[in-house]
Design goal:
Length: 271
């Protein structure tokens, strides 16, 4: 099933997100394309969509597996005009928008894991990579890159993520038309982005917290060689995770990979 470009363009004409669409059958990374377009002055709401990526980028210098004609690979250019410290709020809002969209296909099964992984049945179904272009202290633009595994079969996942990743078709037990999914995703993203601009982070944060099972639980957050363990306690205004450590201090963690632990001691004792 191909993405129906005409249908997409008709539905998104005049909308905040998706009023300008660059569709590429194949590209290196839609984030790189969107970043280039943003630097050339493309307006807010311009999106790049690819059929496949040859150099899809994930967080922390990882690759994002991007096989052809199965999934969604898209990057959205946004110009929020707010302080750079708020930039991660856009990724958080994108996670909420994706989760809400996937809920329509798999009700009550979608969860968020800090910083912005979307999970179904504990397996990763979507990753988000935001990149910011600065001018002085202000944001020039943000590229919100979203990869959703839609119609990928179990055997298509590379060995290293075989047990930890999933797709919407696996979870919903049917093929999912990507065109409608993209339209819903942009609509939900517009809604949460508008909320951020008009009212600030409050409602976005609350929605994120309601979809995240990790708050109140023991977690380990690893960033390169360093690991912080403690209880996940909330989200800071800069999108960081508040972790209460053993000495009852709260540490705000701004980057890393989080794992929910059965007990904090599990991590320390290696069980
Ligand atoms: C992660 O590591 O979880 C983030 C993955 C982000 C993947 C998407 S796919 C569309 C966009 N283009 C990229 O190169 N990366 C993002």
């Amino acid at each position: 099933m191909h993405i129906k470009l005409n249908h997409l363009r008709q539905n998104l004409a005049g909308r905040l997100i998706g009023h300008r669409i660059y569709y590429l059958q194949q590209t290196g990374s839609t984030n790189d394309d969107a970043f280039r377009l943003g630097s050339q002055g493309e307006p807010e709401g311009t999106v790049v969509i690819a059929g496949t990526q040859t150099a899809g980028k994930g967080r922390m210098s990882r690759a994002w597996h991007s096989p052809p004609q199965a999934n969604i690979y898209t990057s959205i250019i946004l110009r929020p005009g707010f302080d750079v410290r708020r930039a991660p709020q856009i990724s958080i809002a994108a996670g909420v928008a994706v989760a809400e969209t996937l809920e329509q296909y798999c009700p009550d099964k979608v969860q968020l894991k800090w910083p912005n992984d979307v999970l179904i049945a504990g397996r990763k179904i979507c990753g988000i990579l935001s990149q910011v272009k600065m001018s002085a202290d202000a944001i020039d633009f943000v590229v919100a890159g979203i990869g959703v595994n839609v119609n990928m079969d179990k055997e298509q996942f590379p060995a290293d993520i075989h047990e930890t990743a999933t797709s919407l078709s696996i979870e919903a037990s049917r093929r999912i038309p990507r065109t409608d999914l993209i339209i819903r995703l942009y609509e939900n993203m517009s809604k949460w982005y508008r909320e951020l601009l008009a009212e600030g982070f409050g409602a976005v944060r609350d929605k994120w917290l309601s979809l995240s099972p990790m708050i109140g639980l023991p977690v380990a957050v690893r960033f390169h060689d360093e690991t912080i363990t403690g209880t996940a306690a909330g989200l800071g205004d800069d999108g960081s995770l508040a972790v209460v450590t053993g000495d009852n201090k709260t540490t705000m963690v701004s980057a890393g990979d989080a794992t929910i632990l059965k007990k904090v001691e599990d991590y320390a004792s290696g069980h």
